[in-house]
Design goal:
alpha+beta, 4 strands
Length: 164
């Protein structure tokens, strides 16, 4: 693998590690069923990587990591995400085969500095990739984190009203 070293623009404008994490995850799901050869997986990974890079090109904002998150999100909800089905068609996988190989409900969020997924509509969210964010964005809680926090600890006001 040759890495082209171009001029670095700002903090980080590329999406290479995030896309690699997302592609690696989807490929590993296909690999676990054992019906897809390693060579097919390589072709699939390459096709998916290119498709995502193209899809995200004008929708990647490292300075506002959550902007465009819904657009970038890869989703299978009894309907196959078109980006996945297109990459799969390059290795001859049909839609019915994909439905057998992949979870029927999968959400994959590919955001700058963080890639996470959830299997099932109320499964827990697992982080696949997390990069150190530039300090400025620490103050922002993603809606996912708020959801997670919300489950474990009620907010201060809630405790106040209950005890008064």
């Amino acid at each position: 693998m040759s890495h082209r070293h171009g001029p670095r623009r700002g903090p980080r404008a590329d999406m290479v590690p995030e896309i690699a994490a997302a592609v690696g995850f989807v490929s590993s799901l296909l690999r676990t069923r054992g019906c897809v050869s390693e060579q097919q997986l390589q072709v699939f990974s390459g096709a998916l990587r290119e498709a995502l890079a193209e899809h995200y090109k004008h929708h990647w904002f490292p300075e506002k990591p959550f902007k465009g998150s819904g657009y970038r999100c890869i989703r299978i909800n009894h309907k196959m995400d078109p980006i996945i089905s297109k990459a799969a068609s390059q290795i001859g996988l049909s839609l019915p085969q994909l439905y057998q190989l992949l979870p029927s409900e999968l959400t994959l969020w590919v955001d700058p500095y963080e890639v996470s997924y959830r299997i099932g509509e109320d499964g827990s969210i697992c982080v696949l990739y997390e990069a150190s964010k530039p300090p400025s964005s620490y103050g922002m809680l993603t809606c996912k984190n708020q959801m997670m926090l919300g489950r474990t600890s009620p907010s201060k006001n809630y405790i106040m009203t209950v005890s008064s």
